[in-house]
Specification:
Elements lengths: L4 H8 L6 H27 L1
Length: 46
C-alpha cells in the first residue's frame, strides 16, 4: 500500500464499524447539533 495521497487516507478510514458504534456516533453528533442550534438561537436573540 502506498503511503501517499488518497490511497493512504482510504486505508486508514476503511475500518468497519459495528452498529452500536454507529448509534453512539449519531447520538453524539445529534447532541452537538442541538447545542449548536441552542447557542445560535440565544446569540440571535441577544
Amino acid at each position: 500500500m502506498e503511503k501517499n495521497g488518497d490511497a493512504w487516507f482510504f486505508c486508514l478510514m476503511s475500518t468497519t464499524l459495528t452498529t452500536p458504534e454507529i448509534f453512539v456516533a449519531l447520538v453524539v453528533a445529534a447532541h452537538a447539533a442541538v447545542l449548536a442550534l441552542r447557542l445560535s438561537i440565544s446569540l440571535y436573540e441577544a
